[in-house]
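Researcher: Going back to the complex we discussed earlier. I've cleaned up the inputs and rechecked each line, so this should be the final set. Can you rerun the prediction on the complete assembly and write out the structure?
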Amino acid sequence: MIMNNLIEKLTDIFREVFDDDSIVLRNELTADDVENWDSLTHINLIVAIEKEFKIRFTTGEVSGLKNVGDLISLVSRKISA
Amino acid sequence: MLVVHQRNMQTDNLPDLDYRRLLAASRKLSAASPKPALKLALLSDAATQQFVPLLKAILDRNGFSAEIYEGAFDAVELEAYNPSSRFYAFGPDVVVILNATQALRASFAKRNGSAASFTDGFLEKTQSIWNAIQSHCNATIIQSNFALPLEKYFGNYDLKAADSFYSAVHALNTGLTQKARGQNGVLLLDIEGVASYIGRKHFFDDRFWDMWKTFCSFDALPYVAQNLVDILMAMRGRVVKCMVLDLDNTLWGGVIGDDGLEGIKLSAHGEGEAWHRFQCFLKELKQRGILLAVCSKNDEQNALLPFQSHPEMVLKKEDITIFVANWNDKAENIRAIQQALNIGFDSMVFVDDNPFERNMVRELVPGIIVPELPDDPSEYVRFLCELNLFETTSFSSEDLQRAEMYKQEASRRAVAASYASVEEFLQSLDMRIVVSRFDSFHLPRIAQLIQRSNQFNLTTRRRSEAECERLMHDPDMFPLYVKLSDKLGDHGLISVVILKPDNECLEITDWLMSCRVLSRGVEQYVMNEVFAIAAKNGLKHVAGTYIPTAKNGMVRDFFRSFGFLQTADTPEATRWILAVDSYVPRNTYIKSCEPEAEAVA
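Model: Rerun complete. Updated structure for the full complex:
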């Protein structure tokens, strides 16, 4: 999948999960920067991404995520695998 | 009309249980919902934060809102045993105890001794939690059972090895079932049923347990929520009472008028088995108290033929409470059936293979449930079961007799037609009544009537069985049930009236009655009793409230008809009062059955 397409889809998911249409993804973005990004919405984010891309994260991958950049590269690795 | 449509869209087809879409719907719910609210406490040894939004979204779809108290994680006992906990302060109508197989596994790993002593200990603990909750509040308890674990240590031999975790969970589920059967006010949430429906492989997702203590996958979670909502809706009176059935290509294959008795498809094996199975399914429903009515476009003679002469018919003529076969439009016929049975349209399910008839009935009979049957009759039973239309929270001997009672009612009508006046007819019925304080024998039926009565119901307070039990023991209250019989048969327990003395006034807090026994003087007889109780206890007035709902318009002027004076009139309620001295006792043709009636006042 082309990277732009991936980011576009992820952006849609972020906007849906955090109920905020102004979210713009960048690599350095973290939970601290997004209102409502708490442990509960984090679950919903992970579940939505798994469904959307038909992938499955390991617990280690989920807990190892530091920022959106990590997430984008993890998802792109998973879908090209 | 739009509202009706939305409702049908969900009840007629399988509900949308997609986690993301439900979550999005839940976010759009406004905090101050105008829908009737339910106070629900959720106690669990798993995390429930992901479960609650789903519950709210599905309740909203069904026309309800919920105020939900989430107990602290894994603190079921702490909440239950502490009378001053926030849990009790919340005042729940319903307490859901959700136990996770994963949490059970962890404590099973720490057991000392046999699996049997582990399960016994768990069951004892669970029952003492129920007892504690019931001693501190009136809520109905909904206890989950356990999804069977995936792991096996002996393979298929796990079932023979009583000490395996798999066998222990089996035993626990059986034990919970037995304990819940023996305890009023405790219902079961069949999580194992949900898990095996979905497939346990897809139900469990241990990653989510490890990371967030979520007890199942996010695909499965909405199914658990839907099942819980189904129970809650049944508690609030949404129950199916009657199946209205088409005949040709619904109960048998082919058209009786064209194909004849030998030509229609219906047999225990082979081409007609699908319809045979469907008839067996309907017969079971009939035996569990759901009325069957026929509504067919046919000449009556043709329509009756298979019932009389087809050797493979499972349903017999006497299984059908009302048989309508003519060429009128079905909406009109269904209205006639509804009037004859005196039940709400929303407690009727219309089953017809013909999409044209389904759409027409859906359009013209607001509220009726019209399942969008699959094309293949082999799928009828599975599809209707997936809709989970037949949820109930009680089952009493009255359910078994219901069909018979409606039959007797039909013969009463026939008898009535032959009398010159209503009075003469009522007199001829030789009606006998019992008005008595609640007793434990009748509690299940009392609670059931409270859940089911929508039309003749002054305040529509859905009291739980536990609450009824508490009223029964309250010496200050007069919680009364009414039973009626006549020479043609027994009506059973048909009315509930709850009275509360307050200063010099006797307050009617609840008054409801089955519509089966309208216009026979029952309410007049009971009102005489109410005033007799007031007089006997030195009370000066009788007062009551009418709380309007979408369905109880028939009792809007109930108090006025007895001469009560209106003291308040708001959209939410009207208030009424009448001095004991001013009440004129009503004439009835009902005699009391002595000993029990004595016990009232």
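Model: Worth noting: The CA atoms of residues 46 and 55 of chain A lie 10 Å apart.
Researcher: Good, that matches what I expected from the previous run.
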